[in-house]
User: What shape does this take?
Amino acid sequence: MKHLIDIKHLTNDEILQITELASYYEDHVPYGTQKKKQAGSVALLFFENSTRTRFSFEMASKKLGFSAFNFDAQKSSILKGEGFFDTLNNLNAIGCDIAVIRHSKEGFIEELAKNEYSYGLSLVNAGEGKASHPTQALLDFYTLKKHLKTVENKKIVIVGDIIHSRVAKSNIELLNRFGAHVVCCSPSYFEDWTLTSAKYEPNLKTALKDADAVMGLRIQKERIETRVPYAQYIEDYQINETNLPQSAILMHPGPVNRDVEISGALLDSDKGKVIIEQARNGVFVRMAVLDLIYEGVKR
Ligand code: CP
Assistant: This one.
């Protein structure tokens, strides 16, 4: 792997290799760092807000013994007119091996990776617009496998703002490949008509029936121009103590808007613990991703 830009670029074997290495790191690097002979340097370039992804990439880098550098876009020379590609070339010249990028523009990271100029930097997509969030899908897959053993023939229901969700799109791509039955549930104004690879069920009660896992999604206010009828949304689509099936695990990529997509009481119950575990698992999965990319580049 030189880059990680989209789930579609990974084979099933590579996905399983990432989850196996993440599991190794979960068991063997509980705290502190694993010093590598030749440590890599990771630049974290986030042009959209983030808590979990940025911190877990930084934590993953440090646990591997890599150096991690946060790029402050507001204080960078991009504001003096420097282009993104030139910025990356310079970061590489200074000594960065991997650039972890979050950006609102879809297809941006792939375009950077295709650039005809050559540079040695590996690029990792840390969330791109509404289109893709591959490491979130990988950590969700890792979490699902820990709880359900396999996703094959499991019913996984994704509830909420599907159309604006990069997490939903990357998860659907990955979960379909491993034989899961993915059902999307949302009001029509959040349905993504282009997503033909997942079943759509507008009624929450019907969608949740016999679910093995339920993923809530945040309403992405920053990407919505029209008014969302919040009160009606909560009444019809909030996941709570009365509608979540007993046997289903509850997931959410975060950040959660408490009492909107999931009730506060459910979040604070045992059912809410898997959501926090997802954030923790993100560190191991991102360690695996950074390690495999770094080893691939140096080989
Ligand atoms: N799940 C996720 O991407 O969270 P952040 O936006 O906090 O990184």
